[in-house]
Design goal:
The complex is a heterodimer of chains A (about 325) and B (about 400).
Chain A (H helix, E strand, L loop, with lengths): L14 H8 L3 E6 L5 E2 L14 E6 L3 E8 L15 E7 L4 E5 L13 E8 L6 E7 L27 E4 L3 H5 L13 E3 L1 H11 L4 H4 L1 H7 L9 H6 L10 E4 L3 E11 L8 E15 L2 E12 L7 E10 L1
Parallel strand pairs in A: 9-11
Antiparallel strand pairs in A: 1-2, 1-3, 4-5, 4-7, 5-6, 7-8, 10-13, 12-15, 13-14, 14-15
Chain B lengths: L6 E8 L13 H16 L8 E5 L10 H9 L5 E5 L5 H14 L5 E8 L10 H8 L11 H5 L9 H15 L3 H15 L14 H6 L2 E3 L2 E2 L9 E9 H4 L7 E10 L15 H12 L8 E3 L5 H10 L8 H7 L15 H5 L6 H14 L12 E8 L4 E9 L1
Parallel strand pairs in B: 2-3, 2-4, 9-10
Antiparallel strand pairs in B: 1-7, 1-8, 4-7, 5-6, 8-11, 10-11
GO molecular function, one term (chain B): acetyl-CoA C-acyltransferase activity
InterPro entries (chain B): Thiolase, Thiolase-like, Thiolase_C_2
Pfam family, one (chain B): Thiolase_C_1
Amino acid sequence: MSNNKPMPVPTEISAPFWEGLKAKRLLIQQCTACAHWVFYPRRHCPACLAHDLAWREVEGSATLYSYTLTRIPTLPDFMDEMPQKLAVVELAEGVRINTNLVGLAEDEIHIGMPLKPVFAQVDAKGNRLLRFTGLDKDAVNLEQLPAVDSEPVPVSSQPEPRKIDFNDAASLQALVSEQFSDWSNSIVVDQALIDAFAQLSGDDYWIHTDPERARLQSPFGGTIAHGALVQVLQSRMKLALDFEVTGFSTQINYGSDRLRFPAPVPAGSRIHSRARVKQVELLPRGTQLTLELNTHVVGHDRPSVINDLVILYRA
Amino acid sequence: MGLKGHAAIIGTAQYKPEKYATAPKMFHLEQVADLAAQALRDAGLRPEDLDGLVINGPQFHEASVFVPAMAAEYLGLRLNFAEVVDLGGCTSVGMVWRAAAAIELGLCQAVLCVLPARMAPLGPDEDPSWMARAMRFGGHSTAFGAPEAEFDLPYGHMGQNTGYAMIAQRYAAQYGYDPVAMAKIAVDQRTNAQANPQAMFYGQPLTIEQVLASKRVADPLHVLEIVMPVAGGAAMIIASKEVAARARKRPAFITGFGEHLAFKSPSYAADMLHTPIGPASRRAFEMAGLKPADVDAAQIYDCYTITALLTLEDAGFCAKGEGMAFVREHDLTWRGDFPMNTHGGQLSFGQAGSAGGMSQVIEAVTQIAGVAGERQLGRCDNVYVSGTGGVMSEQGALILQGA
């Protein structure tokens, strides 16, 4: 869950709606003068302009009026929801609501399908958004924040890597390629992780650590991860390499020939990485293999970290 | 009710669309002066002939209020009529009829309509990241109390792409969807752009396969069905028939118009698929005493292919639900049986902000004047022009006729 997503700011007029969601109740206004149902909240009825709207609790049964699945996020902060399932639903009372679909696979979504509300928890303070899902889904189960996935998840069904001896110059040279590997597992870089790194490194610049200020002043609309943090998170991502170097006694991180941070990683982003073998040298001190490691925000073409990592294998 | 057709567009000016990064940076007041001088030369008028001004208020760089007075002062104009139009992509169409109405009311005799859309130079203390922050939410208000800030943005509903995509999805569910026909709209317009050296995509032909193979942005829209934002800007001179009599070129008389809007988010439309261009176009045709079949060309606002498709239907060029078949059955190029967006449309000409819509009006004027060069239509007396702002939220139509 991104910390930088725009959040609703209730007004005096709309507060009952948001308070209702917190209590898992859907409250919609109805005009007492002409019985017209109203969404979003107002002071005046858009059918007759009467200044007399009453809050009513409704069931929330709805149908899907239209939707789209996004292939490029509407804002980078929504990357963790890709594809976003943006929808317009029509409540039984006739009002339409801009919302999201949750818990539905792409091929389960059809215009006209019946839907029910999901009171989706979006922060630790108990704020909720009104989302919708299919009638056969467990709406309560869909209320929770998506689990923050920051542990390495091994890429499943990966073939057993080829073992190559660290002295086998010909086989090692054959690894050098312009072609990158497949993607690693992905992990989420959330504000807690950024804060922990700020404390550890002493780099507590506001663009990393102050979401309120960053929301107002950062060109990215919120906080971003330290480049160095994203660099070291490499250790949590299992690279999808199809080989394994064997036969050595020690393996040393010899440093980096090139380290660049071309694109930001906004707090809450999901990242993954891939690599290619850039160079192999058999030297007196050992076998030196240069891996070009690229870490990207999932779905972004531009890497957030480019690291030409030099690994030294010693006999 | 309506216009008598006593006002005409007699001069135009338009910057060649360019990428923002390489386009000249100019203050908007300077762009207004430059475009005005060019349009006056095109019309054969002198600055002192101008006594009306219609200009943008939103997105004007040097000020957001008192824009007409500031521009009049900068250009040395004495105005009897000044107006700001805030209708997004429909602004140009809205400017034309407002100027024509003011002229027919006898308020003024020659009106400059102008939309600067190049970027202004950055001030010494201005932070380039200000731009990135301002662009983050596109055209959406994030003001406290703005309904969209509270009820759309938190769900990720923002920008134009997804709104148009949802309209297209509903169209598909109700009437069926032919991606090839949709791609053909972009391809026919690209063909037109090959005959327009001013177009952004001049010299870059396009195939249906390329459109369908281009990246999806939001289902079902491909990136090549969406306009490219460019730097530009445009101006027009609208004058009384007396002034038009001494114009250098054949004037384009404004004989009909219509305008309709009822919502900002199409989610709240009574029916998302019956767009405001319907009532706007009916009024325009009725005012001009013409039918859709009477026009020699249609310059249809095309921020997306779906916009063009729904306008073809709702303006009455074909029946509801038959737009895809209409596109398949007609050649939409300047050589074809239904010339549409003969300059390439904004899809291939480029969309210079709200001045993008002026490219459609200017192409109509250019065709009526008979100076369109290679892409000139054999006969062009009656032209339909549409404008669309927001997500098919504010729409307008014009009928322009050569005398």
